[in-house]
Please model this.
Amino acid sequence: MNRTHTAVDLFAGAGGLTTGLLAAGYAVIGAVELDPVACITYKMNNPKVKLWECDVKKVSGPALLRDSRISPGNLDLLAACPPCQSYSTMRTRNGRRRPRDADKGLILDVLRLVRSMQPRSVMIENVPALARTHNFRKFCAGLRACGYRLRYDVLNVADYGVAQNRRRLILLASKSGTPEFAARSRKRKTVRAAIGRLPAPVRSADPLHHHGSKHSDRINRVISMIPANGGSRSALPIESQLPCHQRSDGYKDVYGRMAWDKPAPTITGGCINPSKGRFLHPTQDRAISLREAALLQSFPRDYRFPLEHGRYKVALMIGNALPPEFIRRHALALRSLPIGIGSRTETIARRGRDRGA
Model:
């Protein structure tokens, strides 16, 4: 555990995965990201990490290793979270619309890089539905053929120190033995623990917290009537509800408040818009701020996001990010494996695929 462990982050986004790896003691020596604003954000927070600003499909394993000054087989961890929009039920109206196929093959690009780089371990994080796909099964078979023992499951990040309910598929693979997931927390972190000590936005010098939402007088009036600490718009009399809510009996979390002493709902790219989910502050008459969203994702308090491209671009990056604390705990579990050849028996947990989501 005292040796410096090296890692490369594919699909780095705003840096959630890298932040978790750094907190677990990894030296992140390289990252790949295509989105220009995500690249700006990543470099703001990780200026010493070599960032390839390009499509993963155009990257070769030998080039990544050469530029990182590391030889095949000596990289400790290749970690990746391929874009998940094609598999997300939220993006597909709960499965009723055919998803886009553009990013469905990216998991196989990760396999291509694993084969050429031969890292000692691999970490994959994604939406639960990925586990039910042919490409994921092909990916797992490819890892096994390369000599990796692996374990995957669908886990709730709320069980691992993140103040948010968010079910994610995570896969750990290693050539040094069968990996184990981190131990679950005995107690879940709450919204209060994550953001309860922040000042009101009007008293904050933090632009990510001070920069609040603006609504019409009618929307503000509706928000003010929603009961504090977990209240829902369904508690309002019918005449006080918005016309669109009167016509629809679904989407009950829209214009709902978070509860102080529970984890937050899943933080999405619409997390600062109360019309997108249960994103109202528990007691203040407003949506959560960008800083609050980042803290609920477990980003450090001083993590930087550029506002030059608009608040909603930042919200999208935060909502798409991997919760760093979730990554930190499982990365530590990978680090605990010895360097070298593990047991001959391969154990694979398929509960993630069986449970689905």
Remarks:
- The first strand starts at residue 5 and ends at 10.
